[in-house]
Amino acid sequence: MSSIAAAPAAARRPEPAAPAARHDEDAVSLKTWIAVVGAALGAFLAILNIQIVSSSLADIQGAIGAGADEGGWITTAYLVAEIIVIPMSGWLARVFSVRRYLLVNTFAFLVMTVACAFTTNLGQMIVVRALQGFAGGVLIPLAFSIIMTKLPPSKHAIGLSIYAISAIFAPSIGPVIGGWCNETFGWQAIFFVNLLPGAIMFAMLWFSLEAEPMQLDLLRSGDWLGIATIAVGLGSLETVLEEGEKDDWFGSTFIVRLAIVAAVSLIAFVVVQLKRKAPLLNLRLLGRWNFGLGTVANFFFGFSMYGWLYVVPLYLARIQGYNAEQIGGVLIWIGLPQLALIPLIPRLMKRVDPRRLVIAGFVLFILGSLLATNLSDNFSGPQFIGSSLVRAVAQALMMTPLSAIAVAGIEREQAGSAAALYNMIRNLGGAIGIAVLQTFLSKREQFHSDVLTGQISVLGEATRARIDALAHRFMTHGVADSALAHHQAAVAVARLVRRQAYMLAYSDAVILQSALLGLALVLVLLLKKANASSAGEAH
Predict the structure, then answer these.
(1) How far, in Å, CA of 215 to CA of 516, rounded?
(2) Measured between alpha carbons, how far is 173 from 171 in angstroms, rounded to an integer?
(3) Residue 64 lies in a domain
């Protein structure tokens, strides 16, 4: 009897070992964490580079003798190269090994960054910026895929929080760094900012990434048609988005041809990917419920995040007369709070369903935007702080949980495709958002100008009184001719009308992006509960 009774007891004794086994599986070495942080730092530098250059673009154009229209290619060249290389990065990392591919591109990125400071004309700058974009574009998706492949699912939330700091803090801090360096040391200084953190990143990756053999045989079986079609398609599309407003969109033969090339190439790419057994990108991942919805929501997130970073600086510069450094001081209120909030998100995800965090994030994102719709002469930098703080909390609540839900259940071998698609579509959201808002602002300014001008009549008593008052002011300040003073007064009234029209247009732009965030909110309401271990062990 005692032996029989002992048997079940003996059978029960090993059971407590199961949690220990899981603990061992979930343990992450210091070298792996160093790899994750190093890769995230690379993504941070790649995204930061776009913002610091944009904040100093006018000075760069003047230094290398480029006009305002031509100078736009300094940014366009980088963005086109970046978006072309992002979808290829996962496959190229398999070909050359993650360690070799990432280290080579990190080194190339730093070399090209320094080279930008020594360019003397527009042609040189465009070539170097394109090469820099090819290298920098690699750093963004590989950081994401390293988190997915090197960390166990239970640690994805922590890894994605580290990545979120790079993805959403860099755009906010970029104008601050760019404006300060440009004002203090000159435009060349913005290209030296990356050197020290880039060297630290290189050392971290050199130490932490394991050497793996190259798989050069993959080059023979590579999806070269897919590579060609997506490179041409995305490159053309990005150029259309960057240059369209300046060239009057489809009033330009150049833009029309590029748009046709982009459409045909991208349709061909989709067909090729769906037919191939080993495609460059597994587009069927978008058919998975959470990944597909999460990726589309991420598109709208990119639209709003980058759209805000376009509209607010433009408003502050054009309406309030802020310089680059002052604009940076306003935008930093979006970035700094996130440094404190994002590290808390993985712990919060263990206690709250990540879907609720994402929903709360999108609601706050909309509310934070709407706080900045009542624009006026008295609405400048300090008045944006409240809106910025709300949006900072929203972005912190949204980015990590949404990423964790989207990638939950994605197989290790599909990590490259998932990382490329998720990041590429967010970047496209930003590019499309800026292009849409550029045109929207122009059209709404014209609309409001027409409405306001129609309400002003030179025969009206209020208008005549305003013009007479301004004319009298001009005459007391040195204008001797009465007719000239009245002419200047009429011009001043026209400027006031246009200024008011612009403020109304900026308010409309904020409302537009808030409405699109509402569409994203509908999508995240449809998300299904992810696997617990993959999405922060939420219950």
Answers:
(1) 43
(2) 6
(3) yes
Q: Are residues 183 and 269 in the same domain?
A: no
Q: Domain total for the chain?
A: 3
Q: According to the model, what pLDDT value does residue 487 have?
A: 59
Q: Are residues 268 and 373 in the same domain?
A: no
List the structure tokens of 248.
């009057």
Dihedral sign from CA coordinates of 400, 401, 406, 409:
positive
Residue 276, φ and ψ in degrees, nearest 5: -75, 145
Q: Within this chain, do residues 274 and 287 fall inside the same structural domain, yes or no? A: no
User: What is residue 448's three-state secondary structure?
Assistant: helix
135 and 169 within one domain? yes
Asked if residue 531 has pLDDT above 80, the reply is no
HSE-up (13 A, CA, CB side) for residue 114? 9
Q: Which two tokens stand for residue 175?
A: 């104008």
Asked whether residue 9 is assigned to any structural domain, the reply reads: no
As a whole number, mean pLDDT of residues 244-259 equals: 88
pTM above 0.85, yes or no: no
pLDDT in tens, 169-189: 788 788 788 878 877 888 888
Q: Residue 445 carries which side chain, given as an amino acid letter?
A: E
Residues 65 and 179 in one domain: yes
Domain hosting residue 202, numbered range: 29-220
> Which one has a higher pLDDT value, 73 or 69?
73
Q: Helix (H) and strand (E) counts for the chain?
A: 21, 0
What distance in Å separates the CA atoms of residue 114 and residue 111, rounded to the nearest whole number? 5
Cα separation, 186 vs 180, whole angstroms: 9
- DSSP annotation of 382 reads T
| Between residues 486 and 527, the one the model is more confident about | 527
What are the residues whose beta carbons fall under 8 Å from the beta carbon of 510, sequence distance 6 or more? 311, 369, 370, 372, 373
Is pLDDT above 70 for 352? yes
pLDDT reading at 519 higher than 70: yes
Q: Are residues 378 and 523 in the same domain?
A: yes
15 assigned to some structural domain: no
Predicted confidence band at 242 (pLDDT cuts at 50, 70, 90)? confident
What is the signed CA dihedral for 292, 297, 301, 302, rounded to 10 degrees? 30
Query: Would 91 be classed as within a structural domain?
Result: yes
Tokens of residue 263, six digits: 């459409």
